[in-house]
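G.,

No rush on this.
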Amino acid sequence: MVSRLRFKGDPKGKVVKNKTKGKRNHKNVEQSALVPQVTLEDIETSWTTSSSLADSYGPVMLCLLDDKNNVRIINWKDESLCTLGDDFGVNEHDQFTPWKGLIHTVEPVSPSQVMICSSVLNSNGVTLKASKGKYLAKTGDKVSFNHAAIDTSCIFKVDFQDDGTVTLAIGDEHILATPEGELELRGSGEATRFVLRVQMRNTVRGKRMIEELSGKKDVSSIEEEAIVNDAVQSLMKYNVELNDELVKRLEDAHKRGRLNEQLIEERTKLKSDSRC
């Protein structure tokens, strides 16, 4: 279940309409001072920048900086065409995103800016679906929302970068946003770095904070979940396949006091499989 999305015209809320139309950029815009007290409403209604596959599901936005360093938002139109827009909301009191800049405060003002991201079993891939039900898919040398059902042309690999951005690829081709506002597929040497904005409540950290503030978990349980999540994140940079079996192995290893040994075994197994 996801919380209600807020858009332009809503009577109240901390999201303010972007009035810069590209005049501000991520280099000279600082986030507001952090508010020390976090409430359940903050977590339930805020968006944040994803830094891992574990946090990247449910409603998401894809943002980028164009060649003039202006923030642009990926939109879908007529259920198929992808375009770049500059109309978006801004959360001026973001307490959760570690990266600075306007692009890391963006929130949606229209359903056309929101996609549903879902992980694909037994892979490190995701699918992206527009609210009208069509999936983003490879169509020739472009990508568009034109598939009603999932097939291999709809599964994109997400590579997370250290600066809070991601690249999207299908096979050996990466998504590149052109100056004309289209999304094309190019060789591995060219790739647009996107910022993936997600609902805070759907992140591992957000869920943990909600449970803590709601009194649904004791402190030891929260700390244990945090340790296992950190272990999962440490494996993601080695392209280890994320699935329920992996999480269960790490949880069991942590309970037995041999989490570090299990992490070494997982990395060793990955190297062995890659040589086969």
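When you get to it, here's the other one too:
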Amino acid sequence: MPRVQDDEVYEVLKEEITHFRVSPGARLTETELSARFNTSRTPIRSALQRLVQEGLVVAMNGARVARPFDLREFEDMYRVRISIERLSVEQACERGWEGALAKLRETWDEPLRTENPGAEEALAAELRVHMGIARLSQNELLITTLERINDRISVLRKLDFLDADRVERTRHDHQQILELIAAREPTRAADLMQKHIEGAQANISRLVSGALSQASLERDGAA
């Protein structure tokens, strides 16, 4: 079996962790991975470090493990996110400068203006519009808090864009939210933002539950 390169190890592990083929919380040891990929520990260490930087692998009790999934924590973060983003939209309606809003409306979907936009591009556009609205609020504490929440859930948010229909639905929601902000309608804009986030949360929960169930069946079948 030929030796694999750093990027190959990284891509395989990223795919497996993202789609829960590696169980959340499973230990990832350099020794076992070196044997599996028929390579030295150096490329394994490099791949794991990249995954740590992306939040897919975390240090826990002196070991590196696939990022655990805590349903209660996920739900709590989305409750906080909804509250923060409702306020973000309301204050953007009150404080947002016309020029900055016009620029955001023109440029937020630039990552999607490619021939075949995927989950990476959709997430980039998603973050651009949500953080753009937050900056329109001119509320520094709100901006900082939302950035921290985004860092915690960005890996899971990408799952929401595996389906082209969800990408298009999200794009439509964003356009409507920005139109309502431009019209200075804070209540309608905030209500739509909440509905938009709740839809994403429900879709991610469904996908995660399905992936975990499938992974469990595969492990049972291999036992």
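The CA atoms of residues 23 and 216 lie 8 Å apart. The mean pLDDT is 90.

Enjoy the weekend,
O.
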